[in-house]
């Protein structure tokens, strides 16, 4: 049987970049990562940009682009128009999937596939206008802090953006994330989305509630499976749904 090829992780790509920049040979890098030299050679050859050389974020983007085969919404323009038209009117993915199933007498597409399609567009294009298909409760967010002072002043352990390390501001160092809550204005639904600034990796999970304790629980679940080097900091807005952000300190993540 042929040998199974295991994809390099983002953590391994960061290590390849560090060792390569330090002058290590392909064989030395392979030994450090316990990988065949051919894997390291292929990685450097395939994922090095002409202008930037080998960068973990560029390599990760190239890998995602090669693996993307397209969803049904990519392959079927008619279905895509039907889905996006309803999302544009404020429907949730669950409602769109349910209505299409009733109209056709069978399941046409799952709501999970619709979420994945939108997330894929956000990640692949970095065009955050795709968020318009996940309507947010902007009116509610706009009323924060009008009475009794800003809610941010009551969030324990809050750190001003001005006091964050410089590496959080640029996109050169992996491991720095931003978190946001995308809320459906009409249906009381929300999605917790976290975005890694260097690789542009976007993760998301639907929430039944925006209570701070529940949001913190899901944040811990999202980050605990990631390697420590790529979960260094998380930046939040001043919403009280992130008031329990200190729960991430159990994973050694700064907030």
Biggest sheet descriptor: 4 strands, mixed
CATH class label of the largest domain = Alpha Beta
- The percent range for strand residues is 5-15%
Helix-strand string = HHHEEHHHHHHHEEEHE
Outline type: globular
Q: CATH-wise, what's the superfamily of the largest domain?
A: Ribonuclease H-like superfamily/Ribonuclease H
CATH topology tier name of the largest domain = Nucleotidyltransferase, domain 5
Question: Please, what is the average pLDDT?
Answer: 77
Radius of gyration: 21 Å
- Measure the end-to-end span: 47 Å
User: How many β strands by DSSP?
Assistant: 6
The strand line-up of the biggest sheet is 5-4-3-6
Broad structural category: alpha+beta
Assigned CATH architecture of the largest domain? 2-Layer Sandwich
Report the helical percentage. Answer: 40-55%
> Number of helix segments?
11
Q: How many separate domains?
A: 3
Give the uncertain stretches in residue-range form: 137-154
Organism: Fusarium pseudoanthophilum
Protein name: DNA binding protein
GO molecular function, one term: RNA binding
Pfam families: HTH_38
What features would you describe in this structure?
By secondary structure, the protein is an alpha+beta fold. The protein has 3 domains: 10-66; 68-134, no CATH class; 136-141 and 155-255, Ribonuclease H-like superfamily/Ribonuclease H (Nucleotidyltransferase, domain 5, 2-Layer Sandwich), CATH 3.30.420.10. It is 42% helix and 11% strand. The protein is built from 11 helices and 6 strands. A 4-stranded mixed β-sheet has the order 5-4-3-6, with helices on both faces. A hairpin with a 6-residue loop joins strand 3 and strand 4 (190-196). The longest helix has 15 residues, at 111-125. The protein is globular. 28% of the residues are buried.
């Amino acid at each position: 049987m042929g040998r199974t090829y295991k994809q390099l992780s983002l953590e391994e790509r960061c290590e390849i970049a560090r060792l390569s920049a330090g002058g290590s040979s392909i064989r030395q890098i392979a030994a450090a990562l316990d990988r065949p030299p051919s894997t390291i050679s292929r990685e450097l050859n395939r994922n090095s940009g002409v202008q930037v050389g080998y960068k973990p974020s560029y390599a990760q983007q190239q890998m995602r682009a090669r693996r993307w085969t397209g969803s049904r919404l990519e392959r079927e323009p008619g279905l895509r128009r039907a889905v996006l038209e309803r999302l544009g009117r404020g429907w949730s993915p669950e409602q769109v999937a349910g209505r299409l199933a009733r109209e056709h007498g069978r399941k046409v597409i799952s709501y999970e596939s619709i979420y994945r399609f939108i997330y894929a567009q956000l990640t692949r294009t970095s065009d955050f206008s795709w968020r318009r298909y996940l309507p947010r409760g902007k009116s509610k967010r706009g009323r924060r802090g009008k009475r009794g002072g800003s809610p941010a002043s009551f969030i324990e352990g809050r750190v001003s953006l001005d006091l964050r390390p410089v590496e959080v501001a640029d996109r050169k160092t992996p491991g720095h994330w931003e978190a946001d809550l995308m809320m459906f204005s009409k249906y009381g639904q929300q999605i917790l989305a976290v975005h890694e600034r260097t690789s542009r990796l976007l993760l998301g999970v639907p929430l039944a509630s925006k209570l701070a304790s529940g949001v913190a629980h899901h944040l811990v679940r999202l980050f605990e499976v990631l390697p420590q080097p790529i979960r260094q900091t998380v930046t939040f807005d001043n919403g009280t749904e992130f008031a329990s952000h200190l729960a991430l300190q159990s994973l050694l993540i700064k907030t």
